[in-house]
Amino acid sequence: MQIELKHIYKTFPGPTKALTDVNLKIKSKEKVFISGQSGAGKTTLFGVIAGLLIPTSGHVVVNDNSLDFETYSNLSAHRRKVGVIFQDFKLLADRNVYENVILPLFATGKPESLEEVDFVFESLGINHLREKQIQTLSGGQKQQVAIARTLVQKPDLIIADEPTGNLDQKTSFLVMDIFAEFNNTLIIASHNEEIIKRYSQRTIYIQEGKILND
Amino acid sequence: MIKFMYSEFSRNVSAYPWRSISFILSFSCTYFILIFSSFGIKNLFHFFENATSGYEVMIILNPNTSDAEMDKMSQEILKIAKPSLSIVSQKPAVTTKNLNSNEVFKYMVDDNKSKSIELSEEDINSYVPKVIQIKFDSISSFKKIILASKIKNEFSSKNKVTEVAIPYPYLHRIAELYVENRFGLFLLMSTLYFSVFILLYLLLTLSLKEHKQKINLFRILGYKKNIIRWPLILEGTFLSLAGFIFAMSAMYSVHLQLVENYGAEVNLKFFSLFEFSMHLILCVSIVFFLTTLLTQKIISDDFIEN
Question: Is the pTM of this model over 0.90?
Fold first, then answer.
């Protein structure tokens, strides 16, 4: 999936300008790291790219087509192609790990094949967690479940907000290896210099809602 | 899709049983207000209909009242409320035409014995009171009672009138109150029904806020609108239905208690199958409509918290 942001502004109620005149082009299958301090606007940028936040002005162009933020069906179709891994994981406490992971497969009402699910569980080494309730998991395990949920979705673009923030070094590299094998566009926010050095093809620095360095 | 929506719906209801029970009870209390007021009004009308079925006023006059005087009085009565009433008969209470030639008129002599006498035309004219019988035409039971009361007030003190007999004289005050304050009662009921609507709106808002985290995740994952919405509508409708059944059961036990204690004095009616269905449709469709509206709003909201 190719993404292009043209003159994106995003303001929230109050004086805060989360994004100011952001122009950015991410080619298909490109692996991009986004770095910046907390509050720099990374999460807002991800929200706009994923079609979760409507920009105050500007255009988001996906595969040469301008994203229509007004129509729910267009937005939901875009969201189905984008897998987002959040810092707070966004897992549902009223169901177990397996039920959380297969959630994206029901987005259209016609559940897709569950064969891929086993493969994802094995790749991430979380087969033993299948039947566990979300409340019983550690932060790192929750992060792995959130990653599994995104991989099951088979998205054209993965946006990951600090995907290794709660993981030990070994698991971090395991997850990043899986992402590296991911044959589509990838945007990752990370503070981990070692991971950026090892996996980055392109790093964008963002500060106070503006792109400082690309 | 149906299987998924059903599993979401049953999860919503069963995963948090206490939440479901508290919502059922809240729906039940809200509906009870509506059902109780409907029950009260239905039985007020029912009571007045019963009380005024075959309702008639009798003006009893002295036996020596002439036909001309009776005619004059009848005309005066008709002036009060024509065409709402009609003079059904204007005659002596007993005439020779009601009696066979050898028939006798019985009257009590003492506690246990009755004595019979034969009445001649002259006797009847001299001793049998005259009666003007008034019936009401196609007006509400409340108006019948008010008119009867008006006739009683105007004619009781007239010359040659012995008595103006009206059934249920004590009801006229209630009837007057109803007729004078019909608009107020309508306003009161409208306010009550509106309050029920607002209470349901608040209840459903509260219920949907509980699901907001899940709704937001489904939106993030690109779920279609109907797949997000239908399990919630089903849940709301199911809890509302359960609340309605509780409220109706509570109303039925109130009805049974009232019948047990006051059954001899008032003939209380419970809801017919038709009225029951109408209440059911009203209560459940309000929830259906509000849930659809609220889910539409939540689904269209911006992800400001993200």
Answer: no
